[in-house]
UniProtKB/TrEMBL annotation:
One cellular component (GO) term of this entry: endomembrane system
All residue ranges annotated as the Cation/H+ exchanger transmembrane domain in the record: 62-453
GO BP field: potassium ion transport; proton transmembrane transport; regulation of pH
Domain called Cation/H(+) antiporter central: residue spans: 514-641
Record keywords, A-Z: Ion transport, Membrane, Potassium, Potassium transport, Transmembrane, Transmembrane helix, Transport
Record field: transmembrane: 44-66, 78-96, 116-133, 145-165, 185-204, 216-238, 250-267, 287-306, 371-393, 432-454
Protein name: Cation/H+ exchanger
Amino acid sequence: MTDSQALAPAPSPPHSKAEICYGATFYNISSYGILEKYETPTIIFGYALPLLELQIILIFVSIVLSHMFLRRIGIPQFVSNMLAGLILGPQLIDLLEYSSDRLSLDVPGNVMLEGVARLGLVMFTFLMGVKTNKRAVYKIGKRPVAIAVSSFLVTMISGLAFRNFRLDKIDPLYMPLRLAPTERSVIVSIQAVTLLPVITHLVYELKMPNSELGRIAISTAAVSDFLGFITLVCISYVGTYRYASPRIANRDIVALIILVLVIIFIVKPMAQRIVDMTPEGKPVRKIYLYVTILTAIFASIYTSVFNQMYVLGPLLVGLAIPDGPPLGSALEARFESLITNIFFPISIALMTMKGDVVRALYSFDDISLNIFLLGLTVVVKWTASFVPCLIFCELPTRESVIIATIMNYKGFVDLCFFDVALKRRNLSRATYTVMIIYVLLNAGILPTIVKALYDPKRKYIGYVKRDIMHLKTNSDLKILTCLHKPDNISGAISLLQLLSSPLNNDNKDRGVIAVTALHLVKLAGRTFPILIPHDKRSKARLLQNSYIQTMMLAFTEFQQENWEYTTVSSFTAYSREDLMDQDICNLALDHLTSMIIVPSGRKWSPDGVYESDDIMIRQVNDSLLDRAPCSIGVLNYRGYSKGKKRKNSTINVGVIFIGGKDDREALSLAKWMGQNSRVCLTVIRFLSGQELDKSKNWDYLVDDEVLNDLKATYSLANNFNYMEKIVNGGPAVATTVRLVAGDNDLMIVGRDHEDYSLDVTGLAQWMELPELGVIGDLLASKDLKTRVSVLVVQQQQQHE
C-alpha cells in the first residue's frame, strides 16, 4: 500500500447495529475489527470509536515522549501536553486534518475528540471552583487589591491605546478590517487578567501557598479574576448587542442573572444541606456526587445556549459547593485523578493542535503588530505589578520581582479563552498560533525564574534569638504545640502541666507561659490553605467538629486550672501534607515563639506498647528541624503508669547532658520544669573519661557555665539531683541510657551533640528515627521495655 493510499479518506463502512445520529446523518460507532476489509484496513477509522482510540493513543504517546526529556530539566508536564499538540498539528502529523472526513462527508471526524476534550474542560473547571476558597475575595488586604487593580487597569488601558494603530496596513485577505480591532481587544483583555485557577496551580507547583508571597499571589489573582469576569460579561454583551441584536444581548444577560440567582438561592443551599446531612467522618452518598456533576454539566449547556463561555457555568456551580470535607473532598477524591491525568492532557493537546506554525510564518507581516502588542502588554503588566509591590506594599526587591513574574503567568484557562475566541472568529488562525507559542514559552520559562528567585528559608533566617536559653528572667515562655490527631492531645497537655507552676517568692519575677495550640488538618478538596483562630466568634458549625471540640475543651480546661500563670490561644490550619511545616513556621514567627512542640509520629497503645509510625508526621518534623525559626522539641509520648496519673503525683524528669547547644537548650527547658513542685529533676552528665584541654574548647566552657548556673539555682531544692557518669564507646552509652530511662517518666535530651564529648558514630548507623538523634532514638525505640517518654530538643538554627 502506498502512502497516498494510506492517507486517503477511508471508504464509508456499511451501517452496523451500533450507530449514532449526528444531525440528520448516521455514522457507525464500533467496527468489526482490523481485518474487516483486507485490502484497506484503514476502513476501521471510518468508525467513531476506533478513530477516537487512535487519536487518544497518539496524543498520549506524544506526551510521554516529550515529557521523557523535558522533565529532566524541570519543565512541568503542562508544557509537554502543549508540545504534543504542536507535534500532532498541521506543521507535522496534522492529526485533525487526517481525521476530519473519516466518519462521513457530513460529520466532522473530530467530533468525538472534541466532545471528550470539552467534557474535560467542563469537569476540570468545575473542580477548580470546588477547590477554591470562597473566603479569598472577602478576606484580602489592601496590598492584593492595589496590585490587581494596577496590573489589570494599566495593562488594559495601555493595550487598548494601540487597538486601532495602523489598521490600514492590514491585508483584507488576512482578516476583514472591521474584525481587526476585535482581535487586538481579545489579546489585550486576556493579557490584562490574571486567572485564579492558573495562579493557584502555579503556586502549588512551587510549594509556596502557605508563604506570605503565595498568599499575596493567590489573593491578587482572586481580585484580578473578578475584574476579568466583569469585563468578559461586558464584552460579550456589547459584542452581541452590536453584531447580533439588542434583543439577543438582553436575553443573554437576563439568562446569566437567572443562572447566578439559581446557584445562590437553590444550588448553594442544597449543597450546604448535603454537608449538614452527612454524619461527621462518614462519606457523602454517591447519588449526591452524581447529581452535583450533572448540575455542573447542565450549567455548561445552559451558558453555551445563551452565548456565554461554556466553562462559566461549571465554575459558578463549583464556587457554590462548600470546599473541604465532606462534599468538596469527596468530589476531588472521586474525579480529580481521572480528570487531571486523562481528560486534562487531551483538552490541552487538542487546543494546541489547532495552531498552524506554517500559516503564522506566512502571515508574519499581518500579525507583526499583534506580536508587538503582546510583548508590550507583557512588559506593561510586569511593571504595573512590580511598582505597587515595591512602593505601596513595601516588599523587598526580590519578592516584588517574584510577584510581578507570577502575575504574568499563563496557563490552561488562558488557552480555553483563546480557543473560544478562535471558534467565534475573534482570532485568526495565525494569531491563535502565536498565542499558543507564547503560553508554551511562558509556562516553561516563568516557573523556572520563580524557582531560581524564591528561597523558602529566607523568611525563617534567625537574626533574632528565639530560644529558651536566651530568654530574660521576666520574659514569657511562648510555646507553639502542634496536634495532628486526638492522640496527641494528652501528651501535649501532660508536658505543659510540667512546665506550669504557681508563682512564689522564688520565681515571682518569672513571666507566664503563653501556649498556642495548632490543630493541623490535611487539606482535602480545598485549593487555599487557611488558618482559623478559635475564640468566642468562631462559627458554631466549625465547633461541632468533635476533633476540634476535643482539642479546645482540653486546652480550655488546662487554662482554667492554671489561669494565673498561663494563657492559651487555639488555631486550626488546613494545609497540604508537604506544606504543613510552612504553616507552623509562619505561626511561630507571628507569635514570636521560643519553642515548637511537635509529636514524633510514633504511636503507642495505652499500655505503652508500640503500634505504628506515621510517615507524614515524621516528614513534617524533618522539614521543621531544617527550617524552624525557633527551638523545636519532638515529643515521643508513651503515657504515665497508673500511679502517676493523679494530679498530685510526682513525675521523675531526667536530662541526659553530653554537650553542645542542643543539650544546653534541653537543660534550659528542664530548668523551667524544676520550678514545679511535682517534678523531681535529675541531670545526668555523660563524660568520656578522657582528658580535654578545657581552655581551648569554648563549647566545653559554655557547658560548664550552664551546668554551674543550674546547680546554683537548685542547690537548696529537694527535687533536684545532679550526677556524672563516665561512659566509653557506643555500647556503654546505649546500656547507660536504658538504665537511666528506667528511673524516669520523662527524658529530655538534645538532638545533636558536640564531637569533643562522646563518640556515638557507631550508634548513628542503627537509628530508626534519625530526626530524634542518637540518644532520642534509643529512648524512643520500640524495643525499649521501660515506659518512658522522651522530648528531643533542637536549639534554633542559624541559617546562612
